[in-house]
Structure formats: structure tokens, C-alpha cells
Amino acid sequence: MQPQESHVHYSRWEDGSRDGVSLGADTRSVSSTEEASYCHRISQKLCSGKLGIAMKVLGGVALFWVIFILGYLTGYYVHKCK
């Protein structure tokens, strides 16, 4: 039985606040780290600042209308006269 070889890939972004460590011998771990950082940047942009507040307000208004319409339709069919 031979011991498995593995390596540690350590990367540091320029702002110094995020460190990435991935374990493994294939290149998929590096691409998944890059993909995760891309998704993290997109979520940071959409969920913080003025754009984040606008997205949360629009999401809340849309959720309100969906619940309102479902409640209206449910009440209409429950209380419909026969």
C-alpha cells in the first residue's frame, strides 16, 4: 500500500482580508476556488451598499405581491358562493 501524495495550494488576494487554501492533487480545486471567489464578489456587490438595499426592497415588494395575490385567490375560491 503506497501513501497518497497530496499538496496544499495557498493563495492570498491583494486586499489581504481573504485567504484561500485548497487541498488536492488536481486542478479542479484551483478552479473551484476561483469560481467561489467570483460568486462571492457577485454576492457582495448585490447584497451590500445602495444596490444591496435596493435589491432587498424590490425583493420584499415582490414577495408581498406574490403572497397578496395567492391570498386573494385562495380567499376567493374558499368563500365563493355556490
Automatic annotation (TrEMBL):
Bilayer-spanning residue ranges: 53-78
One Pfam entry name: DUF4731
GO cellular component: cell surface; plasma membrane
Swiss-Prot/TrEMBL keywords: Membrane, Transmembrane, Transmembrane helix
Keyword Oxidoreductase: no
Origin: domain of life: Eukaryota
Residue numbers spanned by region Disordered: 1-25
A molecular function (GO) term: protein homodimerization activity
Compositionally biased intervals (Basic and acidic residues): 1-18
Keyword Transmembrane helix set for record: yes
Stated name of the protein: Small integral membrane protein 1 (Vel blood group)
Source organism per UniProt: Saimiri boliviensis boliviensis (Bolivian squirrel monkey)
